[in-house]
Design a protein that fits this description.
Shape: elongated
Strand order of the largest sheet: 2-1-3-4-5
CATH architecture of the largest domain: 3-Layer(aba) Sandwich
Order of helices and strands: EHEHEHEHEHHEEHEHEHEEH
Low-confidence stretches: 203-213
Length: 327
């Protein structure tokens, strides 16, 4: 069992959610976390906010509790300090867990905004916060406690964070070995990524154009009331490879299957049966990928059919293409 603990920042408006903040602190302590609620230090000016930012920097998770008050507004930014804390946590890629009170809950006047501008600001902030991955809507304090308990345990399991651990749990030799191991892993990953970029770029190098601008025209046709309708679309070579390679996964497929995969892909979205004008189009594309060592083929004597599959290089390029697009 790991002795690692996770620091969690609790953010909310203060006076209207005192009870919920206190209960959140208790739940986090029971979940083996280190609460960083700043209970006695709620931001009311930029100087204090700068201190709070440093505390957020040290946290593994960020909990946002939304009631029916927007909170103190910063004169310079025009938004509340609570929203500023939220935006800062997001900018630092700290996982955010949102707990918003149900709109149907009726609260006393001292626990809700009555000013039209504040109500509108809260509405916009709430809508933005509810777009997060981990969101819970609560009606009562007990409901809030239950959902917080489940959410923090789920976050600790699904979203790996550095956490905190006693320095005595590691000796110097173990730390050095771990650092060397991570450095090597980082170097290997960078090398694999560079190789993937280089391989994908080679799609375009044959024609001397930039990869991101390299497109090919696909001529196809279909019949509409027995009349032949000709169409042309453009697609990049990498996008076409991604469509074919995703369909192949760990199985071998025939040229006919590749043909159908392309024509039924997201490139067309057509209700009609489609056909390539050039019946050698798929064959030429497959052979180009083969020349790039992304695909291979073999002849089955039993089925008397030529099959195509991805090489180890092709599988890696297929997988790495997703990472490269998200950079």
């Amino acid at each position: 069992m790991s002795d690692k603990k996770y620091q969690v920042f609790i953010s909310s408006t203060y006076s209207d959610l005192v009870d919920e903040r206190r209960k959140a602190l208790d739940i986090l302590l029971m979940a083996d976390c280190i609460p960083a609620g700043m209970e006695a230090f709620v931001a009311t000016d930029i100087e204090q906010f700068e201190v709070i930012k440093k505390v957020i920097d040290l946290c593994d998770y960020y909990i946002l509790i939304i009631g029916k008050r927007y909170g103190s507004v910063n004169d310079e930014t025009g938004i509340s300090y609570t929203e500023m804390e939220y935006e800062y946590a997001k900018s630092k890629d700290i996982p955010v867990l949102v707990f918003a009170i149900d709109d149907s809950v009726i609260l006393s006047d001292d626990k809700k905004d009555n000013d039209t501008n504040m109500i509108e600001s809260l509405k916009k902030f709430r809508e933005k916060a509810l777009s997060n991955r981990m969101v819970s809507i609560w009606k009562t304090s007990d409901d809030f406690i239950g959902k917080l308990s489940i959410s923090i345990m789920k976050a600790k399991t699904e979203i790996i964070r550095p956490g905190w651990q006693r320095a005595t749990d590691y000796d110097e030799g173990s730390l050095r070995r771990e650092i060397m191991k991570l450095q090597k892993k980082n170097k290997d990953l960078r090398s694999e990524l560079d190789e993937a970029k280089s391989t994908i770029s080679s799609f375009a190098e044959q024609n001397g154009v930039a990869f991101e601008n390299h497109e090919i025209e696909i001529e196809y046709y279909y019949y509409y009331y027995k009349e032949k309708q000709k169409k042309i679309i453009t697609v990049s070579l990498p996008e076409l490879f991604s469509i074919i390679a995703t369909e192949m996964m760990d199985v071998s497929i025939t040229e006919t299957s590749v043909n159908n995969t392309i024509l039924k892909s997201k490139l067309f979205f057509s209700p009609y049966d489609l056909y390539f004008y050039d019946n050698q189009f798929v064959k030429r594309i497959l052979n180009q990928y083969k020349a790039l060592k992304l695909m291979d083929s073999f002849w089955s004597k039993e089925n008397k059919t030529l099959y195509w599959n991805l090489t180890s290089k092709g599988r890696k390029v297929r997988d790495d293409m997703i990472l490269i697009r998200n950079q």
